[in-house]
Amino acid sequence: MATSIDRSAVQAAENVWLMAQRQLDEVATLIGLSDAIHLYLRQPKRVLEVSVPVRMDEGRFSMFTGFRVQHNMSRGPAKGGIRFHPDVTLDEVKALAMWMTWKCALVNIPFGGAKGGVICDPKAMSMQELEHLTRRFTSEISIIIGPEKDIPAPDVYTTPQIMAWIMDTYSMQKGYSIPGVVTGKPIAIGGSLGRDKATARGCLYVTNEAMKVRNIPIEGARVAIQGFGNAGMHAAELMAEDGYTICAVSDSRGGVANAKGLDVRGLVAHKQETGSVVGFGGGEKISNKDVLEYDCEVLVPAALEKVITAENAPRIRAKIIAEAANGPTLPEADAILHDRGIMVLPDILANAGGVTVSYFEWVQDLQENFWEEDEINARLKHKMTRAFRETYEQATRHNVHMRTGAYAVAVNRVAEATKLRGLYP
Predict the structure, then answer these.
(1) Which residues of 194-212 are buried (b: 16+ CB within 10 A; e: fewer)?
(2) E strands within 60-208?
(3) What is the pLDDT of residues 322-355, one digit of tens each?
(4) N or C: which end of the chain has fewer CB within 10 A?
(5) How far apart are CA 349 and CA 107, in angstroms?
């Protein structure tokens, strides 16, 4: 194939962008993607890197670097979160933008993929410094965002408040309120009901479908969750309500486990009070590594990328892995898990609830007509369960793991739109 590039597993493990491209390469062969469209989809449409000067509280200026990447817009305006993190890289943002393209296509919403990030340590910044950073970054990327062009959303260490600052900054530049420029906003300024738990709820819906096809009873099924931020915490709450037993959780500082089940309400209260699950009295101390290998029916990686590797995949004991995080599993680990009979619900499926309800929020903003939460959750369940069925059908038909099945659905949709639109001029 014209696009074939010899890359080692080590290279892919070190560079998440190479990993994302490699995933595309593998499915391109499976579905017979033309070389021309394959080449087109391997690269982002647009990459913007900006310098972000910020006046800090003590009066000095600090310089930060930010990115906004638009991978593909063949199916509609670009959509994707913005993360504030000290380890943000351009290659990471490019990979996340590509994954957003596939995610939106898989759940069949009319968006392309984008992503943004700023290299910073938000934990070391005051609220005023974060506001200055957010507003300056917004002004720098405002040339390519907008409700009809590119709609940002929350991601790692960004919040509804940060989305409010983005919306206000963009609106002030235009001279009138434009709530549809961003999603994940507070309800008071055009946010959607159900958005805060959407990623976790979508993860629950597809996990329930996987439990059905694997004939595993939900009641009492043991769950381990790595990452106890927005997605992980809400996943624990919703899964516990549905009958699952949450046995192990962790965050960046460490974890806690109890084979008989953790008190989720108490754990959430402890996290909100102390900032960590570490020290919770209802279980024993456990490491992030041990959470991944905990004896359970369902493992939910809800932290950062590349945590399930060829090294630890043989020791994972879960029967189903639901990727609430983006890119937690390396390609070599996918193959090992598939050979061991472990079903991986890939990130572009398992955490697509967030972007799906973001789409609902965007539609509500444009129509100035807001829906009740029950309607939002019902619409979300319909889209997530349909996406699971389409993914499972493709995986079964081609005898491949679920990630490749999901990519087969998503890449075909993007390729069809790209082919129909053609090249201009």
Answers:
(1) bbbbbbbbbbbbbbbbbbe
(2) 61-72, 78-85, 112-119, 150-154
(3) 999 988 999 899 999 999 999 999 999 999 999 9
(4) C
(5) 8
Q: What letter does residue 146 receive in the DSSP assignment?
A: B
Alpha carbons within 13 A on the beta-carbon side of 282: 18
Q: State the maximum Cα–Cα separation within the chain, in Å, rounded to a whole number.
A: 64
CB 181 within 8 A of CB 201: no
CA 319 vs CA 169, 178, 221, 327: distances in Å? 46, 45, 11, 19
Q: What SS3 state is found at 291? A: helix
Cβ–Cβ under 8 Å, residues 111 and 410: no
Range 371-376 average pLDDT: 97
Is-contact 351 197, C-beta < 8 A?
no
β-sheet with 284-286: strand ranges across:
284-286, 254-257, 245-251, 222-226, 298-301, 320-322, 343-345
Report, as residue numbers or ranges, the catalytic residues. 115
HSE-up of 181 (CA within 13 Å, CB side)?
26
Q: For the chain, which domains are there?
A: 43-179 (3.40.50.10860), 198-345 (3.40.50.720)
Strands (E), 39-187: 46-55, 61-72, 78-85, 112-119, 150-154
Separation between Cα atoms, residue 332 and residue 329, nearest integer Å: 8
Q: Is the dihedral of CA 122, 125, 126, 127 positive or negative?
A: negative
Q: Report, in angstroms and rounded to the nearest whole number, the Rg of the chain calculated over CA atoms.
A: 21
Helix (H, G, I), strand (E, B) or coil at 183: coil
Position 230 scores a pLDDT of 87
pLDDT tens per residue across span 219-273: 999 999 999 988 999 999 999 999 999 999 999 899 999 999 999 999 999 999 9
| Residue 51: both structure tokens together | 């310098």
> Which whole number is the average pLDDT over 205-228?
97
Regarding pTM above 0.90, the answer is yes
CA distances, 181 to each of 118, 136, 199, 391, 392 (Å): 19, 16, 20, 31, 34
